[in-house]
Amino acid sequence: MTALTRPARLAAGARVAVVAPSGPIPEERLEAGLDILRGWDLDPVVATHVLDRHAEFGYLAGTDADRAADFQAAWCDPDVAAVLCARGGYGAQRMIDLLDWDAIRAAGPKVFLGFSDITALHEAFATRVGLATLHGPMVAVADFLKSARAQEHLRATLFEPESVRTIASDEAVPLVPGKARGVTLGGSTSLLAAEVGTPHARTSARGGLLLIEDIGEEAYRLDRILTQLLRTGWLDGVTGVALGSWVDCGPYDGLRAVFADRLGGLGVPVVEHFGFGHAEGTLTIPFGLCAELDADAGTLTLDEPALL
What we know:
By secondary structure, this protein is α/β, with parallel strands linked by helices. It is built from ten helices and 14 strands. It has helices at about 25-40, 65-75, 90-95, 100-105, 120-130, 140-145, 150-160, 190-195, 220-230, 250-265, and strands spanning about 15-20, 45, 80-85, 110-115, 135, 165-170, 175, 180-190, 210-215, 240-245, 270, 285, 290-295, 300. An eight-stranded mixed β-sheet has the order 6-14-13-8-9-10-11-7. The protein has a six-stranded mixed β-sheet with strand order 2-1-3-4-5-12, sandwiched between helices.
């Protein structure tokens, strides 16, 4: 696994597009998120169908075709410097293959931000475009609206990425001690497992530093997800693992036992409570960059800033 192309950092006045590839958006949360972006001296533009709700499947922000068209238009607009997801939920996988990836590649590197269900798009950008992306708080998600830590870490990553080359969590503890080097990747475990066997998916994460989290998955389901990744060989050659948040996944003692059982046999450093994902004050994690994970110190140090 090699490092991916980094997009340029944002500057004051940059135009950023807000899209909804997955679930529907509460308008009041969207407006609050846009106000934060404007406070950073950005110029946010909202895609046409962001506030849509699918007539039959209320968990989708409009039809697959409309969500894909919004995404395509935003990415291919030469005046747009970044495409920011409004929220996750479910639905990104349904529209990925409706996108013109040749046109997206031709439009050049841009900042892409999201997490949770957006994991599917992080993987698509890595495998189809070769682009480094940002796993971080989304525009209409409660944590971004309320958490100063989440806002500041994202703002620093976007505008002053050299200031956050070392990402640290005060709560981090080693499950398996040690240091490891590799290329960062990851996201939601359930989405990573769901991608296995789909067109353009990675056949393995060999050479990667895997950063994973999830929400609403009980211990036995996380066991099943990790077992699936083990049985398919997807985890073969992973160099280290950082575990983020596991909101609504049950008592953590039970989760820790699953992680120790399923990941301890990889023979690589594993760190817990790394502070990214669905938890309060989520950190922004660049994907596609060479880095060193220190499980004992609870740090991820990037070889170079996330953005140029």
